[in-house]
Amino acid sequence: SRLWHWRRIATAFPKSLIYMLITFLTRRSLRWATNTAASNFRQYSFSADLQQRITPGVCESLARNGFAIVDDLFAGDMPAKLRKEVLDLRSSMHKNCTQLVKGGATQLMEKESIFEAELTHDPAIQAAAPNCAELNADPTLPTLLSIFLPQLTLDSQAIKLQVNSGGGGCFPMHFDSDETLDGRRITCIFYLNPG
User: Fold this and answer.
1) For the segment 21-63, what is each residue's pLDDT rounded down to a tens digit?
2) Is the predicted pLDDT of residue 119 greater than 80, yes or no?
C-alpha cells in the first residue's frame, strides 16, 4: 500500500484500481464519533505500522515537496484484507461526483467507472468493513503528522472507500479542498492493488 498526499490530482485510470482516501481535518472542523464496532475489533495494530513508517523524513518530504510516498505501509496480509473489504462493498457504492465551481456557478460532475462509499458516516459500511473502520478509528496517523508538522494541528480523519473499475474513469485536475470552505488539510491515498 502507498500513502500519497496530493494537493492536485489529475489521473486517468486505464484499469481497475482499489483505494481508500483519508482526509485529515483541523480543529475548526467537525469531530466524528468513534465507531464502537471498530473499537471491539483489535486483531491487528495499525498504530504499530504507522509509528514505524511515518517518520520525520516522510513528513519533511511532505512539507518540502507537497507529497510523500510510503511503500509497504501495512504489514502482512492487511492490504489484502482491506482490499477484500472494499471490493465486497462495491455493490453498495455510489458513483463518485465532484462539485465544480466556475464563475460562481456550481456544477455536479458524475464520474464514470468510479464508485465510493463514505465509511465515516455510514454504520452499515463500518460493520461490513471492520478493518477499514478500525483504521478510521485509529488516531495514530493524524497524531504523527501533527507532531512532525505542528502547523497542521490535525484532530480528525475521515475515510472514503473507492473502486475504479477501469473503462476510462478519471478525475479532472482539481484541488481536494479550499481552506475557506472546510478544514481539510491533507489527503492520503492508500492504494490496495497487489504489487
Assistant:
1) 655 554 433 333 334 444 444 467 899 999 999 999 999 999 9
2) yes
Dihedral (CA of 124, 125, 131, 137) sign: negative
CA distances from residue 133 to 102, 105, 165 in whole angstroms, order as listed: 35, 36, 23
The answer to whether 110 touches 97, Cβ cutoff 8 Å, is yes
Question: C-alpha angle with apex 125: 124 to 129, nearest 5 degrees?
Answer: 120
What confidence tens digit (pLDDT) does each residue in 58-75 have?
Answer: 999 999 998 899 999 999
